[in-house]
Amino acid sequence: MSSTPEVDFFDRLVEAKILLPTGIDGLPGRSGMFEEVGDRLHKAILRAGADDQPETMHFPPAINRKMFEKAGFLKSFPQLAASIFSFYGNDAQHRELVQRIDEGHPWADLQGMTDCCLNPSACYPLYPEVARSGLPAEGRIVAMWAYVFRHEPSKDPARMQMFRQLERVCLGTQDKVVAWREKWMNRGIEVLSSLGLPVTLQTAADPFFGRAGRMLAANQKEQKLKFEITCPITSEEKPTAIASFNYHQEHFTKMFNIKLPDGSLAQTACLGFGQERCTLALYATHGLDTAKWPESVRKVLWQ
Amino acid sequence: MSSTPEVDFFDRLVEAKILLPTGIDGLPGRSGMFEEVGDRLHKAILRAGADDQPETMHFPPAINRKMFEKAGFLKSFPQLAASIFSFYGNDAQHRELVQRIDEGHPWADLQGMTDCCLNPSACYPLYPEVARSGLPAEGRIVAMWAYVFRHEPSKDPARMQMFRQLERVCLGTQDKVVAWREKWMNRGIEVLSSLGLPVTLQTAADPFFGRAGRMLAANQKEQKLKFEITCPITSEEKPTAIASFNYHQEHFTKMFNIKLPDGSLAQTACLGFGQERCTLALYATHGLDTAKWPESVRKVLWQ
Known about the structure:
Two copies of one chain form a homodimer. By secondary structure, chain A is of the alpha+beta class. Chain A has two domains: 260 residues, BirA Bifunctional Protein, domain 2; 32 residues, no CATH class. Chain A is 39% helix and 24% strand. In chain A, strands 3-7-8-12-11-10-9 form a seven-stranded mixed beta sheet. In chain A, helix 2 crosses helix 10. The first copy, chain A, is globular and about 60 Å long. In chain A, 44% of the residues are buried. The interface between A and B is large, with 73 and 73 residues.
């Protein structure tokens, strides 16, 4: 049996009781210490970004399906999207459901689609909220965290199906939005470097679906709409993206009709730190025993 | 148009920007202050339960479908359960998916069932984990929080489809488990009373499905397997359950073959505080402006 660096790292994390296997790739449980590192990372990012004076909001992991259909994610990334199904049957259909499960037969056809999908990216529910509550001339900056789902089961512990994004969105004029993203790319490098992580900033593209998707990805990269901060987790050659900085131009504001008071379409940008990926980068870089992490790193987290 | 106390309360929460409507019943966004109250409530419960010296773990909102089938939730509560579907098609099927969405036609048949369901109750993923990692003679107490999903769309802001449970599970001998649940029923009343909530402890039953379910519920109530702490949120006559205390006997340990070192089946009990429901109870009791909450309540939360 040949192994891979990803499987080896996962096995070491399980042995150290940092991740807990559940039998599903990309869906591990997390130890209390893993959670604490993530919480403290979150606090460090909030401290670093206090000058934004952001509003804070939180949306649950499930979102409005109609809104999600409109937002276009299913056009670009159908393979990653998840919809929520439930049981709408009567007593007789329930007996059949139970019998099928007992006998190990498929039961998907006894489920019907609900009004909800799972959120694949923290910022989606924000756009309809801003369309509802309005955008002043000075724009808005909103800090959020969200549990997101992406259907991409993997043996790589850094590619979870369900993980948390520590997110911010800036909405306003082009000048404001572009300058804000620029500021945060530098700040992201600063915060993650202060945690001793060997990070690099680079242009990137999203995993658009199918043949047409390759064009979209090339275009995104050429226009420098997406930057990622990467850090080696299981490979020096293929470092993992642990934060991303996305300039949407008018993509979402056109879709949700978000305008500035002068009637012009607003622009947006978002940034997200992957809570689990940043935490895993810390374990990969500094070792599996947090008590032995460098004093400078512990000071930033446990200040 | 006649309204209800539930709809009125939701409207007041929206007007005060505490909850954010998303167009789906039971799936609102939360304000930063709503989140802060919930976090501080969580900390108050952790402080009150420090003598448990619990292990801490966290599991994501999606869980292993095979495990979930085994755990029997779909037998008892199929109407509340949710399964996760995704897209497994090629380029041509993707074009059809996009066309159907654009034209407003159903697209459920272009989705296939994944290996994941949504977790309806924080403690489910713990049982297979303990079966894997073992149970010493003195038992285990595990503290967790989880985002759970229940398919029961409602206009009542206290009946969300996706909410957080602040949970503990005790596994061990009958004596240990029964005494632990007893201790926590008193402690639950103490903690929530210290927050100025007019709470009551009472026996309760789960919402078992169908005709056979009525028998199960009556039996559960007669055996006092479930207690709830209730608090008026939108009605004095029908107070809302904001915490529950459940004695499972050998239900889960038989299912997952969890034994004590002497070879006997262990027993389990769990307790959960509904983070959103407790927070809503605080707003309903003390008003929508946290700055004006009684000094004694603020002291417990913001100590």
